Amino acid sequence: VVCLVAYHIFFMLFVWSYWKTIFTLPMNPSKEFHLSYSDKESLEREPRGESQQEVLRRAAKDLPIYTRTMSGAIRYCDRCHLVKPDRCHHCSVCDKCILKMDHHCPWVNNCVGFSNYKFFLLFLAYSLLYCLFIAATDLQYFIKFWTNGLPDTQAKFHIMFLFFAAAMFSVSLSSLFGYHCWLVSKNKSTLEVFRAPIFRHRTDKNGFSLGFSKNLRQVFGDEKKYWLLPVFSSLGDGCSFPTCLVNQDPEQASTPGGLNSSSKNENHLFPAKPLRDSQSHLLTDPPSWSETTAKAEKGKVGMSNPALTMENET
């Protein structure tokens, strides 16, 4: 009876998370990241060069973005006509920009991103548990099959097939689930593993990592009672993310009062632009961040801002 109840629980959670992964529409950037009609006309009218750079610079001036392209340009999608938020990428299959895109999964025929990443993780977890449960309960009959302890009927071949299928899926799912657990612990996406995010100062592969606990909460939320359920509980809006930049943004050098933390005897300043309220509280837990004085900020040596150029990026 206990095995039967556990079987139905795993199966329901598996189906629920799989359904949510498939039918949860990926979130797109909000309207504030789309260029206005006048800015679009300016981009089309002006030749490539400083004029277009100025249009993008002006459009992104008040947006909470800190990442750049490899050449130092503002990340702009010329197909969606928007300034890309941090960790946002254009999916060539869906033909639209996806917030915190991880990858396009053919198994669910959907993009895995900010809106359904938690559902995808639970889908992998419950699929793995389901396959392990099937393999474990079928093991005794599989042993009897090899010891000729089963009646000589066609059912024994079904038992052999079921065990091998469950075992093979368990191996593949365990490796995939373990990989995504590592991504969550490091606060990375699959795309960011292959191409580290580039900030204004330099490339930083751990630029979005806030520590294991806070990284976990970004995906699963603050309420632990919702962690194992396929309900959306991720923190933030998908357009802006807390980050630990290693240098102060030279464009914001005049902004008073930064936040910093010390690591390996270096001062790590937090960007001065405000984050969404639902995300910025991740950075308020002591002793991660402490206030700095204006005198300390003045002592920082700013880095030259790279020239911004138009560049298409997926």
TrEMBL record:
The keyword Acyltransferase applies. It is a multi-pass membrane protein. Its main location: membrane. Residues 252-314 are annotated as: Disordered. Its EC number is 2.3.1.225. GO terms for cellular component: membrane. Residues 252-264 have a biased composition (Polar residues). Coiled coil: none annotated. One of its GO terms (molecular function) is protein-cysteine S-palmitoyltransferase activity. InterPro entries: Palmitoyltrfase_DHHC (IPR001594), PFA4/ZDH16/20/ERF2-like (IPR039859). It comes from the Eukaryota. The chain crosses the membrane at residues 6-25, 119-137, 157-179. PANTHER family: PALMITOYLTRANSFERASE ZDHHC16. This is Palmitoyltransferase. It comes from Daphoenositta chrysoptera.
